[in-house]
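Worked Example 4.2. Consider the chain below.
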Amino acid sequence: MAALKPYLQLTRPANLLTALADILAGLAIAGFAFSGEPYVYLLLATLGLYGGGVVLNDVFDAELDAVERPERPIPSGRVSLRGATIFGGTLLAFGIMSARFFSLTSGLIALGIAVLVLLYDRNAKHSKLWGPIVMGMCRGGNLLLGISVLPAALSSYWWLGVVPVVYIGAITMISQDEVHGGKRRTLYLAGLFYAVVHLVQLGVAYRQENFLLALPLVGLHLFLVARPLRAAIQNPVGPLIGKAVKAGVLSLIVMDAAWCVAFGQWPLALVVLLLLPFSIYLAKIFAVT
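Applying the procedure from the previous section yields the following structure tokens:
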């Protein structure tokens, strides 16, 4: 069991729960009735895609982590570079195949996510512009993967995949300065992106006649991301920026619960919210960023 723990650390377990929340939000947006189709394949797919992505991210960052974060599994020698590469590649392949088992459409979306993951891990993350965009596209694709449970829903709600691009783009912008500290200008821009996401969610909830139901969850999400972001703006040093990133990632679960309520799926929203305490607990044991 001890030998498996470093491999588990590479997958960022707390973050994996946020990926599951994306799929559940997509199911809610599609109006899925949770009967008939084996939607569990989509949940397995996102675990493989997200887990493989973060593992391979550490593979590509092995040399840098040896200097900046030597305690991580690969630079510390607890996981070999070859072993991590095989592990990450296997998870990505598992994610694609699981989605394909559900449907061809889902499989193609998963393949697109895998390509974006590799693009981000290998090249895009080094760019101040393309890093946030590509990472956001990965999350947007994950939401669309959930919506693909009913392919007809994709034609109506494909544009909602842009919202995670904006949100994750903000988090990625912040995280680029996590080690050495950052600039207030970047943090203010991230705050603006957060505000756009909240306004879009409230607008969609209003159109779906669920504004009052969605308002508390959107407000909770705003509270969770705004407090650490404000602290980082006041003092943009690495540790406070790291807390702002962590809050942004973990509170994705609340944002996904808000999507569920916006589309009238409040029982599913409660299920999604139940993932939050487990994610917070795992974040105390395993790294989030």
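The mean pLDDT is 92. The domain at 10-285 is CATH 1.10.357.140 (Tetracycline Repressor; domain 2). Compare this with Example 4.1 before moving on.
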